[in-house]
Amino acid sequence: MARRGLISLFVIFLLAAEILADEPTYNVINFGAKGDGNTDDTQVDGNLKRTNEIWKENLNSWLLFIRINGLNIYGSGELDGQGTNWWSCKEKNQCSMEAANSLELLSCTNVQISGLKLINSPMMHISVGRSANVDIRGITISSPGDSPNTDGIHIQKSQHVMVTNSVIGTGDDCVSMSDGVVDVSVNNVACGPGHGISIGSLGIAGTVATASDIYVSNCNLSQTTNGGGSGFARNISFVNINMNEVRNPIIIDQYYCPHSSCASKTTAVQVSDVKYLYVTGTSTSSVAIALNCSQTVPCTGITMDNVNLWSANQGQQVQSNCIDAKGSVKDKVSPAVPCLTQ
After folding, report:
1. Quick one: signal sequence residues (predicted)?
2. 259 annotated active-site
3. Which of 103, 160, 177, 288 has the smallest count of CB within 10 Å of its CB?
4. Which listed residue (125, 154, 160, 195) is catalytic?
């Protein structure tokens, strides 16, 4: 496959009624694909379905695009990762291999992904790593709310990434951003079920981690664990966000631990210049705003403006909680955040 110029992958539904009724599975080799590393096999008409067997060797991804400049993946077809067996062996702690991501971009530039539907990935549905100028729009991602580690879109060590006009429901983060992300925009994304739209974890095992210039806007989060949270992390904005029955609508946690055996730390990734503007909706927990920052490295420049969160449970009240968080409250913030100090 050539690695210069425009490369397109078409994944298109076959509209003939008799074909749709049969819901067949195709081996692309039987339809002209060569898979020899030289032939252009980039057009696929129909849906792609991964084998549901547990792979016998470690493979990080099902569909991998590496070191490509000018990649265009579009169509209305479906990529089915058939991850049920993987989720089951994870639950029983019986997996001998790591689960694979469905679609991975590694060291790619000038990428467009649009129109696709990705379902039931063994692990992350789309992973973007060490890439730049990536535009993901108009996609649908779906897996059960209890499927483990099935992030919708995971972005790390990448810059100038846009995720827009998409619907994502998974068992993990709808969109997750980790170390090394710069200039990421998430706009008009419907998220749920899932853990929300998150930044982190950062600084795992004492490593130095950075994330900056992140803008999340016009998103709807429904029945998610978290709303927008951040885990140097700086210059981050959450604007026009609607929450529906979210456990932690606004959360910054510098003491986040994904398991029970984390050691207590006296240092943390510095969090600064985080804005929550026009955020509304309901919380399923009593603490709707939680800013848990480090005494050694406090959060600074936290701004709340036009935030209105109330309990999803009739008759109950919600509150805020802060530890070593510094910033300001501009206008109409409920619940009140008196703990946010100047």
Report:
1. 1-21
2. no
3. 160
4. 195
